[in-house]
Protein: Two pore calcium channel protein 1-like
Organism: Sinocyclocheilus rhinocerous
Amino acid sequence: MQTLVYAFIIVNLALALFEDPAVVPLPIWATSTIEIICLSAFSVRMVHYAKVIPKDKFWKDPKNICIIVVVTLSFIDLTMYGALKSTGYFALRWSRVLRPLLLVNVTEGRQLRRAFRSIRNALPQISYVFLLFMFSVLVFSLVALKLFGKRGLLTIDGSPYFTDYLDIVFDLYVLVTTANSPDVMMPAYNYSVFFTIFFILYIVINTYTFMSFFLAVVYSNYKKHLKEEVRQLVKARRFKMCRAFSLLQEARGEGGEPVVTQAKWNHLVKLVKPNISIAHRELLWSVLDDQNKGHIGKFAFVQLADLLSIQVITVKSQPHPIQIRFPSMYNSPVSRFIRYVVHQRMFVYVYDLIILVNAVFIGLDEENPVVSNAEWGFLALYMLEIILKLYATEPRAFFARHHFWNCRQILDIIFVLRVLRLVRLVDSIKRSDSYSQMLNKSGLFHCCPLQVVYYIFAMVGMELFKGKVQFFEPNSTSRDQEYCGNPLLKGTTFAKLNYCKNNFNNVISSFIVLLELTVVNQCGFTAVTHISARIFFVLFHIVVVIIIINIFVAFILEAFLVEYTIDKSDLQTSLEKKIEELELNVQQYVPFKPAIKLFD
Amino acid sequence: MQTLVYAFIIVNLALALFEDPAVVPLPIWATSTIEIICLSAFSVRMVHYAKVIPKDKFWKDPKNICIIVVVTLSFIDLTMYGALKSTGYFALRWSRVLRPLLLVNVTEGRQLRRAFRSIRNALPQISYVFLLFMFSVLVFSLVALKLFGKRGLLTIDGSPYFTDYLDIVFDLYVLVTTANSPDVMMPAYNYSVFFTIFFILYIVINTYTFMSFFLAVVYSNYKKHLKEEVRQLVKARRFKMCRAFSLLQEARGEGGEPVVTQAKWNHLVKLVKPNISIAHRELLWSVLDDQNKGHIGKFAFVQLADLLSIQVITVKSQPHPIQIRFPSMYNSPVSRFIRYVVHQRMFVYVYDLIILVNAVFIGLDEENPVVSNAEWGFLALYMLEIILKLYATEPRAFFARHHFWNCRQILDIIFVLRVLRLVRLVDSIKRSDSYSQMLNKSGLFHCCPLQVVYYIFAMVGMELFKGKVQFFEPNSTSRDQEYCGNPLLKGTTFAKLNYCKNNFNNVISSFIVLLELTVVNQCGFTAVTHISARIFFVLFHIVVVIIIINIFVAFILEAFLVEYTIDKSDLQTSLEKKIEELELNVQQYVPFKPAIKLFD
């Protein structure tokens, strides 16, 4: 059922590919039929949901109301659009903007909703700083008007410089995004050096200080929110563990306090993690029951979940297969020397160097016979590495430890992506650190809000700008090519730099334009429509760059600080101690830092 | 003496204004003489310093050695330059780059040195991330070469697109600074939509993720460093306070433990802060000695420094002068109503609105008689505000509370800077918050390293690029104007956008160019010299944007988080409680958050 709902949502969102302006044009009746099917599916789901859930609870949930409103509005829009189109009037599919709301509001979209809730929580503070920021921009614009307005300066296009208040506000806002620096400053600078003081002040205050404020606000909110969420998670888990304990407990301790026996505990672990080895389970038990009483108290029992989250790799220490068959050969001085060399760190470094040299060769001209033959040499070297490692290490340990890179090496042999081989170098650098680990958990989850916002802005942008800018194939002979098919763009830098393909003519190109706008907010588009289209770009900058990108940065900041500031949890330390006691090879146990611990 | 040393350093640094390439050209003998005087002064100071300080200590201090080396090198450079110039050879004043080191290394530049130490501490981690980052850029460049190199694409200038490995590396590096987005992507995008995936991946990984990593590394280091420094500060202060206690103590407590009597404490406070009022001192004492014993123990004594740092404004409650002279009139219902209105929050809001309307009028056309006459109306309204406030509030309290804005209002009357009046609005917004407070302490101190780095880069840049780009006055008739006096710039965007004044022809314009490069790293300069000049721009980006700007952002982040996460210190709470107990007006006491507390 869940998959079905998601499938319908994705189909509904993907309709943007086929609706006018389309990547693959489909007739209106086709897209409408698909949309009606999707909307009906959502309606059916809501009705079903309403039957299952108590009525008052159903109507109190804003999610359900939101879905109902969106579906209703979509139906209304669809009929209106159909009616208007068939009678030949101009019609607008405005409900398309609402589609991502379905994705956010289905009960299954909990992660996404949490991300949006996090944004909503930060909004009051952000808007407060934004007010101060806009005020600062407005005052600076006023000063600029008084300073430059009467001097008759001209911009590089020959238009008057800084004479209209709203133009100045917009120009200075764009300066915050650094898109029009230093162009916006040049006329004043050419007039007098002293005017640069104004721009320097502006850049320091607005571009740097206020933008950092935004980051700081988002970051502090993100931190607060994350802490609260993790605290609740830990609390909920502890509560559940306590309930489990009260179900399993027996009064057998010294003072008659409730305890859980090893037998019950073993049974529980077997149920929860069936694929755990007996040795591993014994190890975990010996950590909890460090006095060998045969039973554990509530405090030790509650730690079970944390303990299970610590990754432990068990490697059976076995002799090498060759050693079993040819012991004298395998233990000969030459063989011992080879094994010693392979296990040396130097061996790894030498192969890193070889990979680097290989990288240089890949960069060289491919048609040179020396270069293409060298490829075979490198391949032989890599083969040799695998063979040597297999010889020196027990095969099972080899595959357990170098799991990923062995797959990589097989890829090497298949010669598919030669350049990817270089990624191996990163691995040898990363081994000493754990930058990558922190991105595993929720890195992707933070991109989702961005996609939702992109979709909404793409829909609006397509309605505003579709067809205004045309792209002509390079070998086209049309004379419109010079100005992207729009006479309004004649002579603009937009046309000169051949940005014609940066248009809102279909969903894909809209997404690409929006990505470009995220990086640098260049708004040549205002030339093709009314000047008020600037609002679109300013809004986009506020929502995406000021809020969402900052959340991404905040996520990385927090993840990084977490990595650097946590001490090992007590549990992990005692586990490692126990392992050492039992004289196992500690190196085989990959310590995993449970990020949750530090928020307690 | 200190001032003298600083004066010499500033003169020495300011020489850059007069030396070739100069803002105000002076003959070589003049600048050389000034420099010799400066260097002699430093030498004399070092000799004096060496006599005062024990020899082994003097030679162990890297600061002294650095100063000696810099002075010696400057002398050598000066003589070489003089000799070469007089014989007509080409000469380079390379020692000018070293001048800021004097500023950093004089014993008085402790703050600046601390900032540089903080940067140095962050360097190993930054360089580690930088390695990863450069590796990623190199791999992406390799992929780009393989993807685009053979397709015969052309850039907008008609030059081949992505065919040379080093060019690609540079272009992709610049894409990280967002300076050449989306230009660098357009040829590939025009060829096929699918190639944008490469650029999207690149932007997500390098422009966003890695740049955030840099910020995270700098921030975590900054935080660690700051904590350590504050901890040492607090420790040193506590140690000193303990020593002071042991000097003042008497064995008089119940258990015979050492205490300090009120008389001695009073005497101490009088010595430390002579301008503190008796009432204030009594208040502080009553906070420390909350059981009225007449003496305090070590623990309470040590808190003295923290207690003195809490700002307390004492306002004597006096009747209004008018009330004394005309009591019946001042207490009449009408007068009471006026006073009530003035003290209302609404009154402030109404005046904020008036200021806003005034702002709109300032933005309007000045020559319109209505607008210029309205100015007088606004002025009258502001006068009325002052009079009403003076009437409603006791004058001394009025000046104590609105100190700054009264000066502002006097300025208003003198009509000097009409626009600045708008800053009043910020005050009313800020009153409820304390964004400004956190910037007071060390905001400026974090700009100093930037200036040192700017100076060094300006010196190098001037040697590399001086005279290569010429600026012509707008009314000049020279035909060189089109290409900034350098045929190499013919037809480049640099010349087209009239960036001619962005040059390294003197110190001031160098600083302005460097500021522009900080905002957006546009490197049109590489056209005028060898392509290896790109290294200069990449280095500048690494040092300024990746390190120093990130330290600035880290500072703001930390300051913001500190503002938002501290609870009031215990000391402050007990002081406020005591004030309430004594039935004083709590509102008169401005609570000052001691930022140091939270690092304990």
Q: What stands out?
A: Chain A has a mean pLDDT of 76. DSSP finds 27 helices and three strands in chain A.
